[in-house]
Amino acid sequence: MSTTATTPPTPSAPPAPNAAVQAFLSGGPKKLYIGGKWADSQKGKTFKAMNPATGQALAEVQEADAADVDAAVKAAREAFDKGPWPKMNPGERAKILWKIADLIEKNFDELAELETLNNGKPINEARRGDLPLVIENFRYWAGWPTKIMGETYPTTTPYAPKLKAFAYTVKEPVGVVAAIIPWNFPLQMAAWKIAPALACGCVVILKPAEQTPLSALRLAQIIEEAGVPPGVFQVVNGAADTGRALVKHAGVDKVSFTGSTEVGKEIIKDSIGNLKRVSLELGGKSPQIIFADADLDVAMKSAYMGIFYNQGQLCCAGSRIFVEKPAYEELAAKIADRAKKVKLGPGIDPKTQMGPLVSEEQLARVQKYVEIGKSEGAKLMAGGDRPAGDLGKGYFMNPTVFTDVKDTMRIAQEEIFGPVAALMPFESMDEVVSRSNASQYGLAAGVWTKDVKKAFRAAEALRCGMVWINTFNLADVTMPWGGVKSSGWGRETGHEAIRLYTEVKTVWVDLN
Q: Is the pLDDT at 169 greater than 70, yes or no?
């Protein structure tokens, strides 16, 4: 197997953003959205939203501090405690959610390009994956407000055997929700939290990642246009301090966070003041298990996408690729060869297959792990370097493949969140399941085999929240998403998400 990494050709100049995107980006700093109004931060603090393909600023953005967060929480409490949204006829809430979906669809190209410019992902991925799922998510949750209901119970009271009672439960909105999202799928992660929370009658304060606030702010304009009342949905831009002020605030009832495990642990600590409800979708180091009897061409393509999709910036990225020994050499060569041929470029270019990493900080993190892998003795089969030419101005990294990786190496244990694959051979089912489970994480796993019994045994034995068989990274708004161990608490998407945004109240009625 060759160890020579090739540099993809430099692409031609990408097309300019469409007029709607340019209009949105022009003008002064992008503002906060608080209490149904667009506002400057009280202290006038701003930061730059960058284009990771060029390293240049796209827009200046107002940064919320503790005072701005307090204003947003007060507006949210007013909207929840006294406003119409929680008490609104469920059918009316449903209509508004459906209208949000329609407006996203109407502005499809603008949102896809804005997402691509600020995040770096290929425009084809935004158009084929991100935006359709965002639209479908709002439409799915538009169907739920009329179907969130409690239950009736037979009563048994040994201390009062003659008691006749009617007992039932109701599901009520949890209240003010702080939704804190990451930068890898900005619109999708926003939709995952906003849509079910609004469907359940909650009010939402969204804090987008400081790297990618632009699509969230455009979404706020759409939500406003759809008729969501003031204070029901708000956006506070900022970094860690903004999120911390939101999590600590006594007026917040619930925190929904997607991001790193390290930050998730801090959120738990910061939320204890008023014992907020917390749900966490955190990191992963997902195994992909490829048995020798699998269709290796299909397995290679799917495993490749499992780690390199979105530049490897996925919580569920299948970065540990276990291959049964008889197929190991062949599959390693195929994955490395495919990695060498990928076309890097600005995400806005439809010809691009892999865009830049989201930030200079993330690029440095990935580069550090590549050096760690080499120093620990892993064999570099592809990538490990940056492309030359104009792409060197952005945060690009060639897709990287390591073989001869040991379970104890840091590149096999720690979440890199970038385009780095670690390939390892295995000999038996028991061995690979044990090695796969020997991780602090438990978000997802993939299994490739033509033996359905083997697939089911592996799926049952793997300790994680999701298992894909003969595929990887499929998602659907009807299916729950989440992990175990250090990969988080709770499940997003699908009807399980109702649990995140409702409280159950028990009511007794004496019928004597």
A: yes
